[in-house]
Amino acid sequence: MLENLNEIEKTALEALASVQNESDLESWRVTHLGRNSSLMQVFSGLGGLSKEERPVVGQAANRVKVALEATLADKTESLKRSTLERSLSEEKLDVTLPGRTIHQGRLHPSTQQLRRVLAILAEMGFQVYTSREVETDQMNFQLLNFALHHPAREMQDSFYVDARERGDNPILLRTHSSPGQIRSMQEFSAKDPKNPPPIRIAMPGMCFRYEQITARSEIQFNQVEGLAVGEGITFADLKGMLTNFARRMFGVQARVRFRASYFPFTAPSAEVDVECFVCGGKGCQVCKGSGWLEILGCGMVHPVVLQNGGYDPKRYSGFAFGMGPERQLMLRYRINDIRYFWGNDVRFLEQF
Ligand SMILES: [Zn+2]
Q: What's the CA-to-centroid distance between 289 and ligand 1, angstroms?
């Protein structure tokens, strides 16, 4: 029996010496120390031995078991170490390789242009006033002097949010930034109704129209509205301010012209053109041969609108203007399709 034990130990140790990896090590453990191993069978056979044999064989079997377990622990440790050393030497990190560049985001071109416009207006004393994008018909049209069935509404097809049971005052997405004129005037005049404070604000934001989406028209676009209200404001102030704006935006040599126009909420009204910066006024494809590019609409605030905002038109006057940052960008960079702006095509966006 003792010789048998020596044989078991010798065989196990020889087998262990040739083990090269952790899975072989595990199967070695099952074979030589597991429940069905020859060594464990010696233990379970102890009961059948004589009183004299039992402690001797038991002791010897224990010694073999302890010896095998200790060798197994050593082998486990050395296998781990060699695995680590191999991975360190084979998977070396090459610190001289160039790093992976991180793709950096940037502001949307519309936002960039919006900020350019607002920065220029801020230098002229216009503070930003934000107004809501969901409006009532009253704010979007009626108080701006668009009568209920006025044909001027035709130019601003609307997205109605809730038209049922609201009669003549349905809720809609604002079609222009001008309802901000009424909201701001009402807010400021409410502070001191007898003596409302002067106003000089810029109102940026998204507007929505129920249009067919084509290269020239979109259902959403940004506008920047400007409003100045005070005592003694004249059309000369409007011309001076907008001429100055055009020079700051398009360069000191930029020439502008004012063309008579019509908006229900301003009188007199005008559209402002800047001399074509592509051809210098000679006439080209961009300006369609005219030499001029339309950049904004403007006018003196209509007395009815001042009244609706809580400003007495006998005492106060003011001017307003509205412009589109996307349109300015299209002129500036000769972008021929307005759908690029909300198409989310990175090939377009990363050029700005
Ligand atoms: Zn031109």
A: 6
